[in-house]
Design goal:
Chain lengths: 362, 234
């Protein structure tokens, strides 16, 4: 900018000054038009997405899409927390797994209806998130990472204990069974494992999660989260409580991870200690990073990519090798992950096209 | 005269080192009070003590007559005490407009435009804060401290890292805002000449303790100050 600070304001007549600041909308604010437009787009995406099973007729690919969406929701919860609060969690399987086990125990052991069990599982995971969050969000940075890892591992060890075998099945895991007359989204126990049948449930959950995360990110609360992430001390010296917003973000994130866990348990009709394992925690975090958590859909893309890679590579046993390579490539070469790379490249190409046209015009 | 900020016996110890040694200060609304002293005199520590960034080893801090010694930083900001930082502290990834708007809403500022213009920040409103020049970021930092009409504003070396002209402009901005907004300002500064030029009262710190205090003329004439600190310049 060539104008100096002192020149510009003096050119502005005093009467127009307030008018200058007022009309331009605050960057991350939410006005009614933005909300309506966003919701409109979401409804379109929701409806279009429901036709995916008609396009993907292949059962294997449909399975990849469905499992990808479920893992994507888990990755979204981790990516949201990382992006908005700068908190990198290695323990979101605590909520994912706790919710999956909650659903399995409620249906199989307590004979609850699956709908009741879903509510119980997601609420349970959320409350667990609130309680754990109350302790861990006080310590950002590496200690947060290590604490969440420790809590996830502790929960994993808890469910494999022999003393709780009657409830959790220990290493054997637990089948999810519910009454013959009970249905979830119109699906009975025998149909829910079919990817195409399960798809609408996963897709609607995903779109709802995306809308919530979008609204929160754009809201004033999202702005405060960003401020705290950017400069916590400055936020406190600007009159903001910095603990409560972080705890709310953590709890929301754990609620979404819980939803993913409940969906997983429904779809698989089975939960095992794997849902609480370090591998699941690490892979979902890697999915969020590879997809790129700076954008809303980045972690989702990462989740789908991961499931796709898993189905392609698990036979050769090289899944972890390629996961590692993907992580290195994403971190070193693709700033902002796959989605960030694509949007960046798109922007550059557009800018180049624009300058070429300008040059040709002369 | 009412007093906005009154601190007595402010002491800050780091282990065996006493960084701030029983310093008193009292600042009325509309008064610009400079705090000067050589490197290591305890200026920034004094600022941290007043603002609640560090816990006092001894002493009390009163804001508008109320004892706030044990109050949190957030509480202080919400109840009329704000500060800026020697190492500029802004929300780097946000635009200037977003962060000023956010803090203005939080603190109930009624004249955001006034502050934006007083600090000549209007041309940079839609720039990402970390992308604008350091001197402009410094002004954003100070603008955030002034929002919401705090009774007391503590400015920690607002001239640090600025060019001579920028620094002089900054002091003029601060002088004008202090008077216009009737706010008690404590200005910790390395630039002695600037402080003498704009301040109403000056405290000189040396080795954590008060060497002299009073009007610029009094301080300039103070024999201890001439001997210990301004010797070469007086």
């Amino acid at each position: 900018m060539s104008t100096t600070a002192e020149q510009v304001p003096s050119e502005v007549p005093a009467a127009d000054r307030s008018a200058l600041l007022a009309p331009a909308p605050v960057q991350s604010g939410l006005d009614r038009r933005t909300v309506l437009r966003g919701l409109g787009i979401a409804v379109v995406i929701l409806i279009v997405g429901l036709f995916v099973p008609d396009v993907i007729s292949d059962e294997t690919n449909m399975g990849i899409a469905t499992d990808g969406v479920v893992l994507g929701i888990l990755a979204l919860s981790i990516g949201f927390l990382a992006h908005r609060s700068g908190l990198i969690s290695l323990g979101h399987t605590a909520f994912y797994g706790a919710s999956a086990y909650g659903l399995a125990i409620a249906t199989t052991q307590w004979d609850w209806s699956p709908m009741q069990a879903i509510v119980f599982a997601v609420l349970g995971g959320t409350v667990l998130g609130l309680v754990i969050g109350a302790f861990v969000v006080r310590t950002p940075g590496v200690s947060f990472l290590v604490l969440t890892l420790a809590i996830g591992q502790a929960l994993h060890q808890l469910v494999v204990q022999d003393s709780v075998r009657g409830t959790t099945g220990a290493y054997d895991g637990l089948a999810v069974t519910w009454g013959a007359d009970d249905k979830v989204a119109g699906l009975g126990q025998s149909e829910i494992g079919n990817a195409a049948s399960f798809w609408p449930l996963a897709w609607v959950s995903l779109v709802v999660v995306l809308v919530i995360l979008w609204l929160v990110g754009r809201s004033r609360f999202g702005r405060v989260l960003e401020a705290i992430r950017e400069n916590e001390e400055r936020a406190r010296f600007s009159g903001f409580n910095t603990y409560v917003p972080r705890l709310i973000a953590f709890t929301l994130s754990s609620a979404i991870a819980s939803l993913a866990g409940a969906l997983f348990a429904l779809k698989a009709s089975f939960v095992s200690p794997d849902t609480l394992s370090f591998v699941t925690a690490g892979d979902s975090l890697i999915a969020a990073i590879v997809g790129g958590f700076a954008t809303l859909v980045g972690p989702l893309v990462g989740g789908v990519l991961y499931i796709y890679a898993q189905s392609e590579l698990s036979d050769s046993g090289n899944l972890q090798l390629f996961t590692g390579i993907a992580l290195v490539v994403a971190v070193v070469f693709l700033r902002g992950g796959v989605v960030g790379f694509v949007t960046d490249t798109g922007r550059k190409v557009r800018a180049r096209v624009a300058t070429t046209r300008k040059g040709a015009g002369r | 005269m009412t007093v906005a900020l009154e601190a007595t016996g402010v002491t800050l110890r780091y282990g065996a080192v006493t960084a701030v040694d029983s310093v008193d200060i009292s600042v009325a609304p509309g008064i610009l009070h400079g705090v000067i002293g050589p490197n290591g005199a305890g200026k920034s520590s004094f600022m941290d003590a007043l603002s609640g960034r560090r816990k006092l080893s001894a002493g009390t801090v009163k804001l508008g007559g109320q004892d706030i010694t044990k109050r949190s930083v957030t509480w202080r900001r919400r109840n009329g005490m704000a500060r800026s930082f020697q190492k500029t502290s802004v929300f780097g990834a946000m635009t200037v407009r977003t962060q000023l708007d956010m803090v203005a809403r939080k603190t109930g500022e009624d004249d955001l435009d006034g502050i934006v213009d007083a600090l000549s920040l209007r041309p940079y409103l839609d720039e990402v804060c970390s992308s604008i020049a350091y001197g402009h970021q410094r002004r954003v930092d100070i603008a955030m401290a002034l929002l919401g009409r705090p009774q007391v504003v503590l400015l920690d070396e607002p001239g640090a890292g600025l060019s001579v002209e920028e620094s002089a402009q900054m002091f003029d901005h601060i002088r004008a805002l202090c008077t216009d907004r009737d706010v008690a300002v404590v200005l910790v500064e390395h630039d002695v000449e600037g402080v003498f030029r704009v301040c109403d009262e000056i405290t000189v710190l040396n080795l954590g303790a008060v060497l002299a205090s009073g009007t610029p003329a009094d301080v300039r004439a103070h024999p201890e100050v001439i001997k210990a600190y301004l010797g070469s310049e007086a």
